[in-house]
TrEMBL record:
It comes from Bradyrhizobium iriomotense. This is Oxidoreductase. Residues 1-113 form the Gfo/Idh/MocA-like oxidoreductase N-terminal domain. Residues 122-258 form the GFO/IDH/MocA-like oxidoreductase domain. It holds the Pfam family GFO_IDH_MocA_C3. InterPro entries: Gfo/Idh/MocA-like_OxRdtase_N, Gfo/Idh/MocA_Oxidoreductases, GFO_IDH_MocA-like_dom, NAD(P)-bd_dom_sf. It comes from the Bacteria.
Amino acid sequence: MIGAGLIGRKHLRKLAEHNDYELVGIADVNAEQVAAEQPGARVFADYRKLLDEARPEAVIIASPNQLHAENGIACARAGIHILLEKPVTDTLQSAAGLIAEVRKAGVRSLVGHHRRHHLQVKALKALLAQGRIGDVVGVSAIWATHKPADYFKVAPWRSQAGGGPILINLIHEVDFLRFAVGEIVAVEAMASNRQRGFAVEDTAAALIEFENGALGTFFLSDSAVTPWTMEQGLGESPEFPFSRQSSYRVMGRRGTLEFPTLNQWTQANDAQDWNKPIQSQANHAGSIDPYTAQLDHFRDVIRGAATSLQPVEDGARSLLVTLAIAEAATSGRRIDLRERYAALAT
């Protein structure tokens, strides 16, 4: 493990419950504190000593975003497989460097967008693939909650450029949309800082064009009290109250699916007529711990028994879209992403 902060500690808890992994070392700049919290573990202040002395087969990288590329490249050059916390890196330039080194070394990689491992997400993808609502026409989505004042006091950088909900929160939603609905090929956006008055946005709205022809709208705010966030709807984090509310509506030619409740709205006899009543149907999906499921998948990826659900190349595409939305909100122009995808792949 490289990085034993908030998300790193969550991974450590899950590893302790997982019989398929043996923890051989932790690297963190606060080595003494981590050693006290993790009795019995080998703790290093320098991640390079961890790689050299503990010689792990795989590493989970949960360091600050700006260190992801450096840590990942060092692991790749040492022939070590990586599970890299999201976002894959902090810039497209560093992401490209990481991709090149991972490819050169032939190591296996997985980016930790954990929502891909939810059973509800898999169920949504299956329902869409079955044509339950026909061709997808559009998506309407919301992520809106009110972050408390202490959130900004603890980390003052969150009130500065790069600390707003676009780069901190929207990247999770972008990755979900790419995975569940389809690749995003163009974006437009606008943003406002009127509620908090910080140098960074507190509210934003984005228009999204998908490769399959569908269009989407996304409303984002960290200064509005609502039950509509993925965290509240899925109940995936104890920090967020479980609202059981859907923050997504995926609309198709034959009906609509809400997510994460998976309620389905269609007309009897497959009608497509605005004068006919629309009926609700429940779809069920179990619930699992996505972090445990992610570790199961990473194990299989390491062993060569499964193809990575999200190698670093794919994680970089989610970063690319999110950065483009931030850029569009500043420039006020539509941004076509296809040339940027091509440049990232070379």
